[in-house]
Amino acid sequence: MGVAVKMAMLLAAGLGKRLRPITDSVPKPLVPVAGRTMLDRSLDIVEEAGIRRAVVNIHYLGDQVVAHCERRGHPDVMISDESDKILETGGGVVKALPMLGPEPFALLNADTFWYEWGRPNLPAMIERFDPKRMDILLMLCPLADTTGHPGGTDFFMDSDGRLRRATDKSHPDGLLYAGATIYNPTIFHGASAEPHSLNVYYDRAIADGRLFGHLMSDAHWFTVGTPDALPLAERKLAELGATSRD
Predict the structure, then answer these.
(1) In a domain, 90, yes or no
(2) How many domains are there within the chain?
C-alpha cells in the first residue's frame, strides 16, 4: 500500500460565474482569500506534500493564470491550455494525461482549499492509496468542518472506506467531497478529451467497488463560490489563526 505520487493536476479552467462581479476581471483561482490566492493555497499543499511538478489547466482569463504560475518557483508548473474549448473536469484531465504520465497522480481543485493544523492530509492520502484495491481515492469531510458550502453531502463511506453516493444529502452520516483526489490513470484508457465530468469515473469505480474515501483530519475546508462567501472564509481563517502564508 502506498505509491510514489510525483505529479499533481490543479483544475483552474472554470468560469467562476457565481463569483461575479469579482471574477469579471480576475479568474476565480486567483481571487485572494486573506491575502493569498486560492490557486497558491492549493499549490502550497502540493509543494508541501513533496510533489515537485504540477499541471494547471486554463481557459477563462488563462493568460493571468499563466503569468501567475511563472512567478512562482515551486512546484514546477506546466500548462494545459483549454483556451479554445473548456473541457469540464473529465475532459480536462484526459487532455492533460500525456503531461501527467502513467503513474498515479493527485488532483486538486484550484478554487477550493483547506487549512490544516495536524498531520498533512495529502501525504496521508498518498500513503494510503492502493492501486490494487482502488481506482480513485477522494478526500472527504463532514459538513461541520466546512465554510462556504451551501448544499448537502456527496457520499456515504463504509467501514472499509468504500464509497457510495449519498441519496439523502442531509443524512448526518454523509460526507462532502473536499476537492482532492488520487487517481490511477488507467481508468481513463480510451477516453477522449471532450467535455465530460469526472463523475463518470466515480460511478464506474462505485460499481466496481473501487471508489474509496479518506476522511480529512485536523483541518477545515473552504469554498468561495459567491461574493458573500469571501468574508465568511476570511473570518474563519482568522478564527483558526491562519496567516497569509497559511
Answers:
(1) yes
(2) 1
